Structure formats: structure tokens, C-alpha cells
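Support reply, case 0932

Customer input (verbatim):
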Amino acid sequence: MIERPTTERGRGSQLTSIVWSMQDVMTVRKNLGARVRALREKRKWSQEDFAHESGLARSFAGAIERGEKDLRLTTLVKLANTFDIRVAQLFK
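Our regenerated output:
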């Protein structure tokens, strides 16, 4: 939970805080990377094989698996197509 200040209009414009429930970006990246690695290993592909199949650079593929990269939608679609799954299944 992250607390962020906000101004509430009305009774004297008091400064209050609202608790925001947010997913941790690093956790999402790490989980996605672990899922990509599991899918790759299930197919018995090396990172180099995976990079070739997906059209990504090997170093970029490795960074995805380590949870180091924010991915664009186009990259998520490319990953899903490489594994012949839906984009949503990357997050399961």
C-alpha cells in the first residue's frame, strides 16, 4: 500500500492522504520474466534459440527473463505468438 497526499475540497481544503492499492511493477516484471523462462525451458530452447524464434536480441530476451525490462504491447504480442498462446496467458 502506498500513501499519496491529495487535497480534499470542501471543509477548509484539508490535506488528507489516500491509500492506493497498486501492484508493484518490479514484482510484475519478475513474474512475467519467470513465466517467459518457464515457457522457453518447456520447449527446451536456449536463450539464443528463443531469441531466434521470437526475433528479439538474445541480450533483450535475457533481460526480459530477469525482469529488467518494461515491455511494449508489441513485444508482449510477439512473445505470445512465439509461444503460440494468448497475451493474457503470459501473466498466468
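We compared this against your earlier run and they match. Two observations from our side: Residues 1-8, 12-20 have pLDDT under 50 and may be disordered. The helical segments are 25-42, 47-54, 58-65, 73-83. Please reopen the case if you see a mismatch on your end.
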